[in-house]
Amino acid sequence: MKILLTGATGYIGKRLLPVLLQQGHEVICSVRERSRFVNPMLEYPVELFEVDFVEPVDMTQAPTDFDVAFFLIHSLGVSIGDFSAQEARIAQHFTDYMNQTKAQQVIYLTGIVNDVHLSEHLESRLAVEKILSTGRAALTALRAGIIVGSGSASFEIIRDLVEKLPVMVAPRWLNTRCQPIGIRNVIEMLTGVMGRPDCYHQNFDIGCEDILTYRDMLLQYAEVRGLRRWIYTVPVMTPRLSSYWLYFVTSTSYPLAVNLVNSMKIDVICRDNRLATLLGVHIYTYKEAVAMAFAKIEQNLIVSSWKDALASSYAGQNLNRFIQVPINGCFVDYKKRTIPSETTTQVLDNIWRIGGQHGWYYGNWLWRFRGFLDKLVGGVGLRRGRTHPTEISAGDALDFWRVLVADRHEKRLLLYAEMKLPGEAWLEFHIQNNELRQTATFRPYGIWGRAYWFAVLPFHYFIFNGMIDRIARAQARASVSQN
Predict the structure, then answer these.
(1) pTM
(2) Looking at residue 173, what DSSP letter applies?
(3) Average pLDDT over residues 432-446
(4) What CA–CA distance (Å, rounded) separates 76 from 312?
(5) I need a surface site. Which of 26, 77, 186, 230 has the fewest CB within 10 A?
(6) How far apart are CA 105 and CA 70, in angstroms?
(7) DSSP letters of 250-306?
(8) ∠ CA(380), CA(381), CA(382), 5° rounding?
(9) What is the pLDDT of residues 223-261, one digit of tens each?
(10) How many angstroms separate the CA atoms of 63 and 213, rounded?
């Protein structure tokens, strides 16, 4: 079967692609930026289709000879109030495109929408489903609540709260009921409905048998992890305060926190689990799904993370335009160190381990303080960390940076700043001719940008010199505890 997979660089898409390839399907991966796509299974070639459905599809370049299309696009991280219109526009452009292809089925992963009063996020998901259903291809909609898996936004928020807070004074929406489902079951069902006429023009609620409150999920997570936690709910937290609570305690962005809080006030209970019966899928309990997620985390086998999607940033735009670092009108801090040729591999390993739990080699408390300040002004902060401790790819989130280039063959790592700044910033590491070159580039916005650069210049002297010195050491050890 030939399949079009949209959202191939997103959380679900990265999980679904290797399964489709292993099952022997031909896959066309639809991506907004070709540079962000990494094929997880090189022995199975895939076709790439670079497209942004925000605009109508150029049919002169678009593939049309596929049987099934997965619609896995969402705009939840877009500025508050903007995502509904954007999602509707994307869905309409996608449907117009499907009407000009040979596709027989569109499979859409959406949210459970059984409550009388829905949040703006869930209203948008339902509106998208209605638009997709108007197309020529038969729609199969799978409606899920909380998806439990290593790297999923909901799971990582639960993980942040329980791991960091022994005692929680929490908003009353923690008493809202939901029916979570493990990521493994989601993938089984997405692939199970492909090409099945009895699933055409149908929507299915998918979830485990457990009906839990968010409070229950936090406490059961703590039980799986062997932690004792106390949770007290209070009625005085407004949605805005609840959003700030999530934003400052977890790694989520503020727009995402607002949209999640609004959705968490709505019960998301399945009507039935008829799809599991129809497909013969064994549904895991919530505790089993948590345990399986941690098995992946402890083995550093996280396939995808919501933080690596652009929804975790404030960019929400094509990153290709940032790959060419500007020269004119910029401030530059350039440093270089000579390294012995026999230590090149070790130094490159040091570069590839930067950020996350390894830290930034020098002045980590200053990096953490800068991340805290970024959170105060509504930025992403330093809590996103990194998905894998030693591997990194273009498009990955790296603390408050986004990876633009990660080329081990060329010995080059280029990062773009997603923190709140009065300008644009890049940080580049490059090994050439037995030299480690470290370049920080800042393009200021007006006088405030220039004032910012000179205000932080004294810190740059110590931080950037200390960082390159430690990276250049063949036995450099980076840990969050340093400095």
Answers:
(1) 0.73
(2) G
(3) 92
(4) 9
(5) 230
(6) 9
(7) SS--HHHHHHHHHHHTS-B--S--HHHHHHTPPPPPHHHHHHHHHHHHHTT-----G
(8) 125
(9) 998 889 998 888 766 666 767 767 777 766 666 666 666
(10) 44
